[in-house]
């Protein structure tokens, strides 16, 4: 990504620093060190789940660093007759970049960049192995659509890792409202008067003495036509399978070495980057959910295997610390709520 | 009919517990953000806006340069999750372009553009959360970001919105009130008491206009106090670190001198 242009001399200086023994980087980190990461969930009160993540923000005056805001919002969609809905719900992800993050890009270039990031996030997160089980509402009629919007507010390098971490945190934070299906029945005995009966969880509550139902009929005919929210003030239940959302680790490659968490100038000096999207312990010890190379360098198959092995180690560290932080955030919010 | 939210109840309180002329809390953060030359994050109650200023710098497109003054370029981006119902607005959206044009015309007479011929000042506004008073938050944020970037201006621009509920004027409306009540936004320059913007998209009785206009001007002055405080605080902290730095340097040179003596 040529978002910053640097001179040949600067490029070779940065590359030489990375290949030197011991390696040296402008901010004194070692090759595999990350900058500080700060994460906060529940930042957008109008969304069903949200997170703000920054990498490399100065802790004293809150300045600088990559900053990403992600929020998940749920909407109801009709399935069939003109609705876009899909059985069991669907997810759509969008990444938008503030022009302030890339001040030297023209608006067309910014659109292209947004599109690239959207494709990577969307393709990884909407894969059906990750699909949450509780996005359906009424079989064949209504389902939730989850819109995940990530906004890159500022980019100081390593934006993909930040976007994926923010996405995972926002989805972790997402609560799906509980719904109850409602069905309307015509009263047969009372003649023309119409009443409505409520059905809890789709199980029958009908007057059985009117119609003889065969005991062999085991079909479940869904007659519910609409749904309601049993409790408006309840936030709902967490999105199913929230442990599965992957994290991304970007390996910046300066042959034969590689390093993590590049700043923007370091990114400009790196000919090739490999993105690895990985998830752990769900249900396999390690699953690779995506892999991308960015830039115009080349890699041999043996190198890829090596990078994958190294990437797995780094990603697991990110995974563990992100999970710890998310659990802590959940605990804090529970504590806040139990105050009242 | 279910109970409806009262805009102003009999006790004189509004739906969020404020009095008629009470403003929402203003929170200003002027710390450095990304590569921006000046940035400001401002919240009016729940409305949350982030403004970054770049420039004066060379224009990205040569055709945009003006030979005797700087060109002001305003771009507004609204986060899809900033409103109650999700709506994705692209940059080319007419409503957003008009909004950006309003901000631009508000600041054109205030920024001393003639000092920077053939250059461009970029103002990027990112709306993170909306709860009424969007234009006011954007204008106040832009003023602060421009000052933070050190761009010479004639005065502050302080914006505030107001509306009239039946006969009683209200200041600093939330989204709920904005939807229900005829409202206007004005931007005041406190030193000269000039007004650089008045907009109204609803209808308001002529007799009521003067009163709300006067009140909003006064509220603009109150907001000016807050903004000035924030700018002074930021400048002081910057000056403090400059002094600290120069002290350290002189301390170091003194130490060096001692070393030389030894």
Automatic annotation (TrEMBL), chain A:
Source organism superkingdom: Eukaryota
Compartments (UniProt record): Cytoplasm; Nucleus, Nucleolus
Signal peptide feature range: none
GO term, biological process aspect, one: nuclear polyadenylation-dependent rRNA catabolic process
Family the entry assigns: Belongs to the RNase PH family.
Lineage of origin: Eukaryota, Fungi, Dikarya, Basidiomycota, Agaricomycotina
One term under GO cellular component: nucleolus
Domain annotation Exoribonuclease phosphorolytic: ranges: 33-177
Stretches for region Disordered: 187-208
Entries under InterPro entries matching the protein: ExoRNase_PH_dom1, ExoRNase_PH_dom2_sf, Exosome_comp_Rrp42_subfam, PNPase/RNase_PH_dom_sf, Ribosomal_Su5_D2-typ_SF
Name of a matching Pfam family: RNase_PH
GO MF annotation terms: mRNA 3'-UTR AU-rich region binding
Main location: cytoplasm
Name of this protein: Ribosomal RNA-processing protein 42
Keywords from the UniProt entry: Cytoplasm, Exosome, Ribonucleoprotein, Ribosomal protein
Automatic annotation (TrEMBL), chain B:
Keywords: Cytoplasm, Exosome
Entries under InterPro entries matching the protein: ExoRNase_PH_dom1, ExoRNase_PH_dom2, ExoRNase_PH_dom2_sf, PNPase/RNase_PH_dom_sf, Ribosomal_Su5_D2-typ_SF, RNase_PH
GO annotation, cellular component aspect: cytoplasmic exosome (RNase complex); nuclear exosome (RNase complex); nucleolus
Domain Exoribonuclease phosphorolytic: 22-152, 155-218
Compositionally skewed regions (Polar residues) per UniProt: 244-253
GO molecular function: RNA binding
Cytoplasm is among the record's keywords: yes
Coiled-coil residues: none
Region span, Disordered: 243-262
Gene Ontology BP terms: nuclear mRNA surveillance; poly(A)-dependent snoRNA 3'-end processing; rRNA catabolic process; U4 snRNA 3'-end processing
Alphabetical list of CDD domains matching this protein: RNase_PH_RRP41
SUPFAM superfamilies to which the protein is assigned, alphabetical: Ribonuclease PH domain 2-like, Ribosomal protein S5 domain 2-like
Principal subcellular localisation of the protein: cytoplasm
Record's subcellular location: Cytoplasm; Nucleus, Nucleolus
A Pfam family the protein falls into: RNase_PH
Xref: Gene3D superfamilies: GHMP Kinase, N-terminal domain (3.30.230.70)
Quaternary state and interactors: Component of the RNA exosome complex. Specifically part of the catalytically inactive RNA exosome core complex (Exo-9) which may associate with the catalytic subunits RRP6 and DIS3 in cytoplasmic- and nuclear-specific RNA exosome complex forms. Exo-9 is formed by a hexameric base ring of RNase PH domain-containing subunits and a cap ring consisting of CSL4, RRP4 and RRP40.
PANTHER family registered for this protein in UniProt: EXOSOME COMPLEX COMPONENT (PTHR11953), EXOSOME COMPLEX COMPONENT RRP41 (PTHR11953:SF0)
Family that this chain belongs to: Belongs to the RNase PH family.
Protein name: Ribosomal RNA-processing protein 41
Organism of this sequence: Pholiota conissans
């Amino acid at each position: 990504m040529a978002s910053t242009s640097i001179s040949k001399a600067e490029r070779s200086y940065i590359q030489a620093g990375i290949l030197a023994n011991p390696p040296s980087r402008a901010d004194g980190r070692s090759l595999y060190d990350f900058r500080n990461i700060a994460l906060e969930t529940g930042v957008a009160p109008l969304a069903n789940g949200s997170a703000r993540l920054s990498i490399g923000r100065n802790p004293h005056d809150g300045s600088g660093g990559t900053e990403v805001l992600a929020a998940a919002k749920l909407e109801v969609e009709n399935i069939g007759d003109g609705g876009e809905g899909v059985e069991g719900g669907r997810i759509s992800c969008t990444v938008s970049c503030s022009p302030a993050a890339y001040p030297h890009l023209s608006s067309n270039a910014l659109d292209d960049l947004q599109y690239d990031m959207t494709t990577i996030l969307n393709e990884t997160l909407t894969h059906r192995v990750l699909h949450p089980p509780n996005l359906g509402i009424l079989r064949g009629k209504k389902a939730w659509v989850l819109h995940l919007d990530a906004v890159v507010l500022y980019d100081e390098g390593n934006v993909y890792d930040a976007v994926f971490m923010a996405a995972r945190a926002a989805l972790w934070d997402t609560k799906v409202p509980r719904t109850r299906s409602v069905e309307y029945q015509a009263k047969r005995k009372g003649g023309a008067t119409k009443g409505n009966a409520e059905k809890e969880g789709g199980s029958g509550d009908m007057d059985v003495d009117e119609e003889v139902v065969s005991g062999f009929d085991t079909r479940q005919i869904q007659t519910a036509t609409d749904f309601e929210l049993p409790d408006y003030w309840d936030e709902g239940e967490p999105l199913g399978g929230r442990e599965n959302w992957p994290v991304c680790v970007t390996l910046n490659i300066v042959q034969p070495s590689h390093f993590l968490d590049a700043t923007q100038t370091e990114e400009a000096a790196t000919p090739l980057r490999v993105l690895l999207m990985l998830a752990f312990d769900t249900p396999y010890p390690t699953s690779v959910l995506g892999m991308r190379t960015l830039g115009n360098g080349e890699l041999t198959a043996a190198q890829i295997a090596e990078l994958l092995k190294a990437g797995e180690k780094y990603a697991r560290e990110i995974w563990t610390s992100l999970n710890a932080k998310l659990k802590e955030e959940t605990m804090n919010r529970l504590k806040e709520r139990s105050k009242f | 009919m279910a109970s409806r939210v009262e805009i102003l109840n009999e006790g004189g309180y509004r739906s969020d517990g404020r009095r008629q002329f009470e403003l929402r809390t203003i929170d200003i953060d002027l710390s450095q953000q990304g590569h921006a030359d000046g940035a400001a994050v401002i919240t009016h109650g729940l409305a949350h806006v982030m403004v970054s200023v770049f420039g004066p710098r060379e224009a990205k497109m040569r055709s945009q340069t003006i030979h005797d003054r700087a060109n002001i370029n305003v771009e507004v981006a609204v986060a899809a999750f900033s409103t109650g119902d999700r709506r994705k607005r692209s940059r080319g959206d007419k409503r957003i372009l008009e909004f950006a044009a309003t901000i631009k015309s508000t600041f054109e007479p205030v920024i001393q553009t003639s000092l920077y011929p053939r250059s461009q000042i970029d103002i990027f506004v990112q709306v993170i959360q909306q709860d009424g008073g969007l234009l006011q938050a954007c204008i106040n944020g832009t003023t602060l970001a421009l000052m933070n970037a050190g761009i010479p201006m004639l005065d502050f621009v302080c914006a505030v919105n107001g509306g009239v509920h039946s006969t009683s004027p209200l200041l600093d409306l939330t989204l709920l009130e904005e939807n229900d009540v005829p409202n206007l936004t004005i931007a005041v320059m406190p030193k000269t008491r000039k007004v650089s913007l008045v907009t109204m998209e609803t209808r308001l009785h002529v007799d009521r206009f003067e009163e709300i206009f006067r009140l909003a001007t006064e509220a603009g002055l109150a907001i000016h106090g807050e903004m000035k405080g924030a700018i002074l605080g930021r400048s002081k902290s910057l000056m403090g670190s400059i002094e600290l730095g120069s002290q350290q340097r002189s301390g170091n040179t003194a130490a060096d001198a001692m070393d030389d003596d030894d």
